[in-house]
C-alpha cells in the first residue's frame, strides 16, 4: 500500500488502513461515461479503488465538454472509454482501468457485470436504467443510482445486502417506466455541469460507503437534491411485493427493454 | 379546514407551476392524484411516485390531516 499517497484517507477515522485496503481490493463498474460518470470515475480513481470498469460506446463531442470534465478538446471524436482509461491511469497508475467500448444491453450485461462488486448507474436513458436494475437484482450486486433533471438530482443505493437482506430496488419506486417523451432528456432540457458534478460525487460517496461497509448507506432510501435551493429530501423506500423482475438470466435476455421503455400510452400510466 | 401539504418535484413542478401547495384533506393517495389531475390537466398520464410523510407509498395509502405528501416523477438524465 502506498502510505504516502493515501495518508489523508488512512488518517480518517472511518477509513484507516483497513478501509484503504478495502478500496484497493474493490472492483467497481461505472456504466455511462458522461456527466455523472466522469466525476464518479475521477474520485474513485483518486481514492484508490483497485479496479474500475467503464462502459460507454460513445465518442467525445464538443457539447460534452462543459460537464464531462475528464475530457479535453484534444479528445473530440475519440472513444470516451479510451480517453478515460488514459487520464485515469495518469491520475493513479496503481489501479486497473478496464474500458468497455459498448453500450450496455441485456445481451452483454451479465458478462460485463459479473466481475464487479459495485455497479454505478450513470446512464441517461430509462431502458438502460431498468435493465441495469434488473441485472443487479439477478446477480445480487449493489447498484448506486444517480439521475438528474434540470436543477434536481436523485441518488439511491439499490439491492444492497445489509443484515442478510437485499434492500429495495428501482422498480419498488417506479414499477413501470414513463411513456416515451414523457420525461425530457438533458439534451432537450439543458443542464449545467455543476449538477451532474454534484450528484456524481454523491454517487462516488455512496460507492465508498458500500465498499467500506460504512453506516448510513442510502439503501431503502431515495434522496432528491435541489441544486438551486440546496434543499434535500430523503424518502424511505419499502420493498413492493408486486414488483415484477425477470426471474432468470434467460428471461432477462429475452425481455425487450427498448420497447418496454418506449411504449405509447394506452391507459393512464400513473395508476399506482 | 383540514389540509395536507403537497411538495412537487421535477417535471411536475413546471407543469403545476409550483413546488409546494396546500390541498384539502383527501381520503387516500389515489383520490389526491385524481383531484390534482382535475385541477392540473397537464399532469394526466405523467407517471410519478408518491410519498406520505417521507415514505414512498402505494395508491390505497390513507392520508391524514397534517400529512406531507411529495410527488416524485422519475428522472433519466445523466
Order of neighbouring strands in the sheet with most strands of chain A: 3-2-1-4-5-6-9-10
The largest β sheet of chain A comes out as:
8 strands, mixed
The averaged pLDDT of chain A comes out at: 94
Mean pLDDT figure of chain B: 94
Report the helical percentage of chain B: 10-25%
Helix/sheet category of chain A: alpha/beta
Oligomer: heterodimer
Radius of gyration of chain A: 18 Å
Please provide the ordered H/E string of secondary-structure elements of chain B: EHEHEEE
Q: What is the count of DSSP helices of chain A, taking H or I runs of 4+ residues?
A: 11
Question: N- to C-terminal separation of chain A?
Answer: 51 Å
Residues in β-strands, percent of chain B: 25-35%
Segments of chain B where pLDDT lies below 50 for 5+ residues? none
Q: What count of domains describes the coordinates of chain B?
A: 1
Fourth-level CATH superfamily of chain B: Beta-grasp domain
Largest interface: A-B, 50 and 28 residues
Coarse shape of chain A: globular
Shape of chain B: globular
- N-to-C SSE string of chain A, H for helix and E for strand: HHEHEHEHEHEEEEHHHEEHH
Give the helix/strand class of chain B.
alpha+beta
Amino acid at each position: 500500500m502506498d502510505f504516502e499517497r493515501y495518508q489523508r484517507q488512512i488518517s480518517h477515522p472511518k477509513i484507516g488502513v483497513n478501509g484503504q485496503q478495502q478500496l484497493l481490493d474493490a472492483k467497481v463498474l461505472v456504466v455511462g461515461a458522461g456527466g455523472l460518470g466522469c466525476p464518479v470515475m475521477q474520485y474513485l480513481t483518486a481514492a484508490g479503488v483497485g479496479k474500475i470498469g467503464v462502459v460507454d460506446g460513445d465518442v467525445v463531442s464538443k457539447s460534452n465538454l462543459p460537464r464531462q470534465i475528464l475530457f479535453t478538446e484534444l479528445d473530440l471524436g475519440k472513444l470516451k472509454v479510451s480517453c478515460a482509461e488514459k487520464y485515469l491511469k495518469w491520475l493513479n497508475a496503481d489501479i486497473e482501468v478496464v474500458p468497455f467500448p459498448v453500450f450496455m444491453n441485456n445481451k452483454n450485461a451479465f458478462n460485463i457485470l459479473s466481475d464487479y462488486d459495485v455497479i454505478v448507474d450513470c446512464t441517461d436513458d430509462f431502458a438502460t436504467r431498468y435493465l441495469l436494475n434488473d441485472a443487479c437484482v439477478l446477480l445480487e450486486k449493489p447498484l448506486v443510482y444517480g439521475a438528474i433533471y434540470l436543477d434536481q438530482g436523485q441518488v439511491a443505493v439499490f439491492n444492497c445486502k445489509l443484515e442478510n437482506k437485499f434492500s429495495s430496488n428501482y422498480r419498488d419506486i417506479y414499477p413501470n417506466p414513463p411513456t416515451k417523451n414523457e420525461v425530457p432528456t438533458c439534451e432537450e432540457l439543458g443542464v449545467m455541469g455543476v449538477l451532474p458534478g454534484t450528484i456524481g460525487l454523491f454517487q462516488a460517496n455512496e460507492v465508498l460507503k458500500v465498499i467500506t461497509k460504512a453506516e448510513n448507506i442510502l439503501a431503502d432510501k431515495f434522496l432528491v437534491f435541489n441544486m438551486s435551493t440546496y434543499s434535500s429530501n430523503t424518502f424511505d423506500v419499502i420493498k413492493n411485493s408486486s414488483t415484477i423482475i425477470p426471474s432468470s438470466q434467460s428471461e432477462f435476455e429475452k425481455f425487450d427493454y427498448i420497447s418496454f421503455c418506449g411504449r405509447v400510452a394506452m391507459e393512464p400510466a400513473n395508476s399506482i | 379546514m383540514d389540509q395536507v401539504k403537497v411538495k412537487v418535484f421535477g417535471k411536475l413542478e413546471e407543469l403545476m407551476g409550483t413546488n409546494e401547495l396546500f390541498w384539502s384533506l383527501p381520503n387516500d393517495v389515489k383520490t389526491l392524484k385524481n383531484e390534482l389531475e382535475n385541477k392540473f390537466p397537464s399532469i394526466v398520464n405523467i407517471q410519478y411516485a408518491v410519498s406520505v410523510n417521507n415514505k414512498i407509498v402505494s395508491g390505497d395509502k390513507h392520508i391524514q390531516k397534517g400529512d406531507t405528501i411529495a410527488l416524485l416523477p422519475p428522472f433519466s438524465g445523466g
